[in-house]
Amino acid sequence: MVNRKRKNESGAATAFISRGKAIKILQLSLQDFRRLCILKGIYPQEPKHLKKVGKGSSEPKTYYFLKDIQFLKSEPIIEKFRDYKVFVRKLNTAVAKKEPGTARRLRRSRPVFELAHIIRERYPTLVDAVRDLDDCLTMCFLFACMPKNQKIHTEQIQFCRRLTLEFMKYLISIRGLRKVFYAIQGIYYEAEVLGQTVTWVVPHKVAYEHPTDVDYRIMSTFVEFYCQLLGFINFSLYTKIEARYPPELTLEVPSEIQVESLAIKDEIYEESANKDKWKAEQESVERLQSLFEGLRFFIGREVDCESMVFHIRSCGGEVSWDNIVHEDAPYDADDKRITHHIVDRKQIEQSFSRYYIQPQWVADCINARRLLPVKDYFPGAVLPPHLSPFVNESDGDYVPPDKKRLMGEEVGSVVGDKQEEISEDKAENKDKKKKEEKNEEEVPKMSVVAGAVECIDAGKKRKKEEDEVTRLREMAIPKKQKRLYSKLKYRQKKTTQEAKKLEEKRQKYELGEKKRKQAPKKIA
């Protein structure tokens, strides 16, 4: 007898399980189940065929992979959850019965959660952990700036603060900072750690109010795991550079270690095909690492001291601050060796032996990887556009003239170009009128003229041949792929149109600015 294939016994119906059934199998509360899934890195899945998974029901539910839930059954941390519930029950009973000795003994024997085995399981190597460091750093920096709350404990805030400072000191020691961008949400950073690119956001240090529509318990669970992860990463990174952990206030790394790491990278990249490209990038990185060497900065009281010290020291500069803001300043504001004074206000008593600049100059220099002219960043001056270094324009995209200038391309003034075009058009019109008048005056005569050789433009001929080849290739595209090709061409066309619109807007803006500057000022 042939075994009949029954409904809902194979395929998607058996590959997924609802959250309610998973909680019953693990015998956990919803809060403990969420915490366990966050710590283990197991998240809900959205099945393609909801009706098949729901066995005929299309009711919206939260589904997980059945294999993931079976994997959670053998997790030892589940027993810790149950032990903690028993501990809370016993402690409440002792407090209700007014037994302080028993309550004190129970608090000393409180169950402790160890996440080391979960971190080793999720991240077998240090490079794997560094690749997943973006969200970890963003959350830790966020909690380090948060004020104390009933749902956010002071110990957690202080722990995040210490870990983030340790990571920043490591980046200063290896000079791993690559990009900085000031935005409304905060300061965006990009650094290079063990050959991996790490990006994170640091909130601005301003007055902060806790939003009411956020579940802080879930965020605290994420931060609990991320703190343990960042602690392991910091320890491993400091061990690699043979530095003491936890670090002291002044951390100095021998130059031999940095040279050795660069030599290892050379051996790896020499085998690749893009040697020239990598060498140019390596020279740019080395130029960035020594960008502020030989310069001495002083930070005004109104400027964020911590972020500015991080920027300058990551590029080899020396920096100091006012003792009112932070203690242990390396040198005073009256030091004659100071070359740049960073201020964020218009009126200040200035000294002729140093430059007074706004904080944006430091970030723009890091992104351009060269020292920019300070005349555009004087106190009270209208700052140039702060361009994002995270935007990479492709062919056909709009590139602002300011970015072209920073990239070293020669970009003429749009207003000057327009005036030249207008003058050229006027000159052409005059020549045409003169030729027409001459032709009217001259009487046509019968004559024989020697033929001239036709000049063929090689560039136009080549372009015409390339267009013909492209047209033939388009004709050879299969019907199934032709729709995708037409979508790509449509997208390129739209991108080009948007770039033209932005260029026209920029031209109008520059024309308006020039007219405003040339207009005579009214005397009141």
Number of strands: 9
Report, as a whole number of angstroms, the end-to-end distance. Answer: 106 Å
Sequence of secondary-structure elements = HEHHHEHHHHHHHEEEHHHEHEEEHHHHH
Compute the CA-based radius of gyration: 33 Å
| Category by helix and strand content | alpha/beta
Order of strands across the biggest sheet? 7-6-8-9
Oligomer class: single chain
Main sheet characteristics: 4 strands, parallel
Helix content: 40-55%
The proportion of residues in beta strands is: 5-15%
Mean pLDDT level: 82
Low-pLDDT ranges: 249-273, 409-418
> Count of helical segments?
20
Shape type: flat
SSE topology:
Elements: H1 12-15, E1 16-18, H2 19-26, H3 30-40, H4 50-53, E2 63-65, H5 66-72, H6 77-96, H7 100-108, H8 116-122, H9 126-131, H10 133-145, H11 154-174, E3 177-182, E4 187-193, E5 196-202, H12 216-240, H13 255-270, H14 275-289, E6 296-299, H15 305-314, E7 318-321, E8 340-342, E9 355-357, H16 360-368, H17 401-406, H18 414-441, H19 458-475, H20 479-518
Parallel strand pairs: 6-7, 6-8, 8-9
Antiparallel strand pairs: 1-2, 3-4, 4-5
Helix pairs in contact: 3-12, 6-7, 10-11, 10-12, 11-12, 11-15
Verbal overview:
The protein is α/β, with parallel strands linked by helices and 524 residues long. It has helices at residues 12-15, 19-26, 30-40, 50-53, 66-72, 77-96, 100-108, 116-122, 126-131, 133-145, 154-174, 216-240, 255-270, 275-289, 305-314, 360-368, 401-406, 414-441, 458-475, 479-518; strands at residues 16-18, 63-65, 177-182, 187-193, 196-202, 296-299, 318-321, 340-342, 355-357. The strands form 3 sheets. Strands 7-6-8-9 form a 4-stranded parallel sheet, covered by helices on one side.
